Amino acid sequence: MAGEIKSFARFGMIGWLALLMLGWLAGGAGVGFAQQGTQKSKAAKAPVNKESAIRRAQPAGVKELPAEFVEKLTVRGCTIPQFDSGKGAEGIGAEPNNVIHGEFTRRGQEDWAALCSNGRTSTIVIFWGRATACPASLARLDDAHYLKAGNDKKLHYSRSIRTLGESGLDERAGVAGLKPMSHQGIDDRFVGKSSAFFYCIDGKWKIFPAKDAQGAAD
């Protein structure tokens, strides 16, 4: 009888230890699964670096830019964000964009302009052919604001600047008072959404906003 009690006690102790071990293993596995789930949750919520979706050109890589303008942009730490229509290589183009030239203050004077990005915001920077009263920079705006999803579900940069003269303004509100125009201006576009035409007059930039219904940069 005493032997049976001892055997039962020994069995009970072994059983208790086994149950304890199983409980510990189950608990550890539970913690592991919980940690794994937390890691997945954190990974899913990791912020997307939108700026990385923007292709950028170096000023020195734009062949037609005057050397003095290249130096000015380089000293400012500029890169030139590239308009991308979302149509692959065709949408970006072989040559750098968002660099323009025209007669932005008076007829017969060639001026240059480029989008200058510091990695988060972009400003239109102007290189005047001669001293001019209008400011040499304007329209500083967030790069991320101009990202929109294309048909491929990826983000594409949709800010584009272009030279625009009187014939290209159509019936934009407010511009009638400028006509006949003595020189060109800069059209700053959120392609397919909105546009702001900048015109240098009396030492200041006048702004004429409008909708942009076109689907590509001209």
Q: Please compute the radius of gyration using only Cα atoms.
A: 31 Å
For the biggest sheet, the summary is: 4 strands, antiparallel
Kindly, what is the distance between the CA atoms of the first and last residues, rounded to a whole number of angstroms?
A: 102 Å
Q: Based on DSSP secondary structure assignment, what is the total number of beta strands?
A: 12
| Overall SS class | alpha+beta
Strand and helix order:
HEHEHEEEEEEEEEE
Beta-strand percentage range: 25-35%
User: Kindly state the mean pLDDT as a whole number?
Assistant: 81
> Which percent range fits the helix content?
25-40%
- Quickly count the domains: 2
Low-confidence stretches: 1-11, 13-35
- Tally of individual helices: 3
Specify the overall morphology: globular
**What is the spatial order of strands in the main beta sheet?**
3-4-5-6
Description:
By secondary structure, the chain is of the alpha+beta class. The chain has two domains: 1-46; 50-211, no CATH class. It contains three helices and twelve strands. Strands 3-4-5-6 form a four-stranded antiparallel β-sheet, with no helix packed on it. A four-stranded antiparallel β-sheet has the order 9-10-11-12, with no helix packed on it. The longest helix has 43 residues, at 2-44. The model is unreliable at 1-11 and 13-35 (pLDDT under 50).
List the helices and strands and how they pair.
Blueprint: H1 2-44, E1 56-57, H2 67-75, E2 80-81, H3 89-92, E3 99-102, E4 111-117, E5 121-127, E6 137-142, E7 147-149, E8 155-157, E9 159-164, E10 185-190, E11 194-201, E12 204-211
Antiparallel strand pairs: 1-2, 3-4, 4-5, 5-6, 7-8, 9-10, 10-11, 11-12
